[in-house]
Amino acid sequence: MIHRIIAVASVGVLGYFVLMQLYLLTLALISAFALDKERMLERFGRIDDMLVSDVSPPVSIVLPAYNEEVGVVESVRSVAMISYPRFEIVVVNDGSNDGTLQKLIDTFNLVPVPLPFRANIPTAQVGQVYHSTRPVSITVVDKLNGGRADALNAGINVARFPYVMLTDADVLIDGKALVNAMRHVVEDRDRTVAVGGNIRPLNGCVVKFGHIVEANVPESFIERWQLLEYVRSFVAARPAWASFNGLPLVSGAFGIYLREAVVNVGGLTSGHMGEDMDLTMRIHRYYRSRGEPYRMVYAPSAVVWTEVPSTRQVLRRQRIRWHRGLMTAVHDFRSSFFNPHHGAVGMISWPAMVLFEYLAPIIEMAGYLIVPIAIILGAVAWENALLMLALAFLAGAFTSLIALLLDERYGYFNRPLAALRLVLIVFVENFGLRQQTVWWRVRALIGGGSTHGWGDMQRRGVANLGKAS
Amino acid sequence: MATATLIAALTLVAVKLAHRIILVGRGVRSAIYIAALGEMIATKLLPSHMPRQWARDRLFHQAIIDYRRLLSGEDGEFVDELIKRSKVLPSLRRCIQPPWLHAIRLRAIGSYVELASQQEIPHLRSLLTDRNEFVRFHAAHGLGRLGDVASVPLILDLCVRVRAWEVAKLADSLPLFGREAVYPICRWIDLAWQSPNSTEQAVAEAARTLGLIGDLDAEMTLLELLESDRREWRIAAASALGRIGSDSSRFALLRALRNESWEVRARSVRALAYLADGSVAPIVSGLLSDSQWWVRQNAAETLGELPGGVVELTKALESEDHFAADAARNQLAELRLLPAGVSPRLSVETQ
Questions:
Q1: How sure is the predictor about B197, in pLDDT bands with cuts at 50, 70 and 90?
Q2: Do β-strands A59-65 and A87-94 pair in parallel, antiparallel, or remain unpaired?
Q3: Would the pTM of this model clear 0.90, i.e. be above it?
Q4: Which terminus of chain B has a lower count of CB atoms within 10 Å, N or C?
Q5: DSSP for B56-115?
Q6: Hey, is the C-beta of B3 within 8 angstroms of any chain A C-beta?
């Protein structure tokens, strides 16, 4: 009897991995078509006309900052250089206890203003608002500490324009990211409520004057592995989800929202470890429950570069935090699971998120325990187990290679050495680090090792990000 | 599976290497074209023969487009002669035709509309009925660049039949036609108004275009739109009238400040800022007490820009309506003109 249970369980685990890889492969293939369509629009859609158009919708760019004294000025300068006809920058100083606010006041010649802003979303108390029109319209909100979500909510309250771009003070935004993202809004202004961007690791890239001048494959294994992970997610999965309006997550590092939509759902949830997923899902639920037409799209050419963890300790804390966020979201949106009233999100992307993201570490961990026992007990023939394992790993590698091939249209990393490094990481990622991340995610589920609020990754500041140029 | 993975890995490496080689090759070819064309223009010597593949190479097209944009007068005429001699246009015309793949057609139309001369207008007009939306709006831009005013009604008619995003793309081409387009646009709006087929967006885009062109001849049409029963038209007309600048526009915009739609009031009050007539400041000041946040903010911003507006803002500091006082206080603080003794401290209001 035990033999039989173990045999069924081990075959189930191996079958699960094959199924997961098939799902990812399907997403990659759908993404290929979606990216082709996108590419066509980008190349031949006269996007640059928007840069001189009077009707391009204005955008408020919200940058939350907490103890960012080192890089906040460079961040704001970098954002101010974005190519777009009309935008304002709203920096929210979330109760920093370093010189973040003073640095901003001194550099941009800010003056206190009694801005009568629309306090649509409740936040921690706002102390003062400062304003300057040089080099662009900059508003700085000084408030009591309340965490990233609370800071973003305060920024959304103060934002004057109908669209808000939520990002971080420690990212580098590509000069054309905003125009590439807002293109989707212009194309369907009535229905577009959110646009997600393409996040890429900054580690290893050469940065000059707050801009990427050379994109490189990072040196260290851990960073390179994350590069592959980002490419798989942002190039080979999100375009597919967005193509059937089932995007379950607009990344927190770059998301443009209709301000009204965020206000209608009550803003971001303070204290939530996956506030970006929570916001995305709540917007889906809001529009679905009202039966109002809407769409949340993904702009692969709206590129934002962010620093990824370069040490295992920081990566561990990040992954635990992310999985905790996912766990809370799975609980909060359990009503969306296979809910036909929630459309593609309810029937495809959210169930897939639960089955292949949330449950994956548990099943994988179970697999590492059960399959060897099954082989030892003779419940499963070792040849069969090895074959299925090899099939799952090879299918994973194949999907990763497809993702890298799709990424080729953006033209990064085309040096021969970079190509070899990427191919190598595809094959070796399954041995070591993968198992370790599985363990971290299981730990997240059973509690422990999490970090709240702003996280604790050591930031270097935008000016010092990437390789020294 | 192992074979498929191996093939994918080898393909990736091959694609990356090919991509690199292609990029290097493009750089070299571009440099050759730029140098060759530069020398021809500098020496004013037309070659007796140009390699046929040049006419088909998009890098050559780009190089010649760049020179054409850059040069005028005698040099510009010489570039036109080079375009004729290189037979680029017949080659591009062939590539635009339907049997070719989308990517080839679209690449060709992009260059064609930049290089086309007056003789190409009939062909460009025929492309307005192409099945591909990209070809259609590129053709509209080409016609705009050539100033073919007769095609304005065709483009506007097209706006009625196509999806919203293409209307926006087509509308972007209309200001290129310049002042000559005002009469056909106004006439089209008059006819569209009576037609049951007219779409809200097409008329609104046409009205916005009239504002961008900024010709006084469009005023009557815009004034009628401002009085229409369609909100989108009134909003577009209000913004456009701000750029026209006659007494009639000013009076109409002042009347629109009492419109039941807050969007129309918000646009009208901003439009008054463009007219820069200080005599309207006391009336604009009344909107500091509007029930809508946007209208109050726009009124404050307009007062900040109007001659005499600061006086009205300062008066509003004493207002019993704290919304009006807050909006005025903020505007004065942003202008750095807050009177001594008035605190720039924040007071939070809700909508």
A1: low
A2: parallel
A3: no
A4: C
A5: H-HHHHHHHHHHHHH--HHHHHHHHHHHHHHTHHHHHHHHHSTTS-HHHHHHHHHHHHHH
A6: no
HSE on the CB side for B325, CA within 13 Å?
13
Model pLDDT for residues A74-104, shown as the tens digit of each residue: 888 888 888 898 899 999 999 998 889 999 9
B200 Cβ under 8 Å from any chain A Cβ:
no
How crowded is residue A446: how many other Cβ atoms within 10 Å of its Cβ? Answer: 8
C-beta atoms of A40 and B106 within 8 A: yes
C-alpha span between B292 and B324 (Å, rounded): 11
Question: What pLDDT, on a 0 to 100 scale, did the predictor assign at position B86?
Answer: 85
Q: How far apart are CA A243 and CA A37, in angstroms?
A: 10
pLDDT tens for each residue of B116-129: 989 999 999 999 99
Which ipTM did the prediction report? Answer: 0.80
Query: Could you write out the three-class secondary structure of A213-246?
Result: EECCCCCCHHHHHHHHHHHHHHHHCHHHHHHCCC
| Dihedral class, residue A46 (left if φ above 0, else alpha if ψ from -120 to 50, else beta) | left
- For residue B149 the two structure tokens come to 């005013």
- SS3 category, A210: coil
Pairwise CA distance, residues B145 & B118, whole Å: 10
How far A450 CA sits from the closest chain B CA (Å)? Answer: 35
Distance CA A412, CA B210 (A): 43
Peptide bond into A58 cis (omega under 30): no
For residue A466, what pLDDT is reported? 52
C-alpha span between B136 and B133 (Å, rounded): 5
Task: Please tell me which of the candidates A55, A115, A405 has its beta carbon nearest to residue B12.
Answer: A405
Task: Quick: pLDDT tens for A366-406.
Answer: 888 888 888 888 877 888 878 877 877 888 888 888 888 88
pLDDT at A412: 80
**CA pair distance B298, A200, nearest whole angstrom:** 39
Nearest-neighbour CA in chain B from A441: distance (Å) = 28
Exposed, middle or buried, B277 (CB in 10 Å: 0-12/13-18/19+)?
A: middle
Compute the distance between CA of residue B317 and CA of residue A341 in angstroms, rounded to an integer. 52
